[in-house]
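Cross-posted from the bioinformatics board.
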Amino acid sequence: MCNLKKESLNGEVKKSLGWIPFNGQTIKVIDDIVKYDGVKFRFWKHREIIGNIKTGSFCQDSRGRWYVNFQCEVTDKRPHGERKIGIDLGLKDKAICSDGIKYDRENLTKKYAERLAKYQRAHKKKQVKSLHAKIKNKRKDFSHKVSNHICSTSEIVFVGDVSASKLAKTKMAKSVYDAGWSQLTTMLQYKAIRHGMVVKKVSEKWSTQTCSYCGVIPESAPKGISGLGVRNWKCSDCGTEHDRDINAARNIFNFGAGHCTPTGSLSLQ
Ligand SMILES: [Zn+2]
């Protein structure tokens, strides 16, 4: 390894620090030994080498100690967890998972409605615009946090499609219901690739009425407009008691995994 000597103006000999760059193909690393130009050097490996070594260098600090640096190419794979879940995107601000975990979204439209109306009345265009931007950013931030959590903790995820069937029973506009949920679904889908896990959209039709335990649509299932307020119900066929939302999420998982397709009375349509 070369140390170049330089003579400064006052005659002092200064050594410039050694630096030997290399190509990844010209070296070999086995455990804590690096082989370069036919010579083996033992080094202290302070962390595991992940990926392919592309380039690197031997370099020296001012105290004459030598270091070896590696630049590695790693694939952008992130870890995923073991949850296998279905997710029901609720009418309001809850995303409910079949394993019981719920993600609550702040109702931003409601939170800022008053302030927004005030600005609009006063024709404060600039403030209206910035408040809209704030709501949009907060919503996006929520989608990022939730999708990150789901993708890093799960292996298989089935997410209910944002269906019109739920909306047909309410006065809510699709744009209101959809705001954020399609964003979340899109994020889940592209982050799934990064985490090496699976996210699939499945039809959520019948997910509310079907008993996730026995797979039928029993007489006691919540139906129509009157059924919207039902939080808990008991299957009249098998006697299983259900939390409405978790049952829907379990059905979405079952539909996606092909465990069962809803059967029973079609007169519910
Ligand atoms: Zn049942």
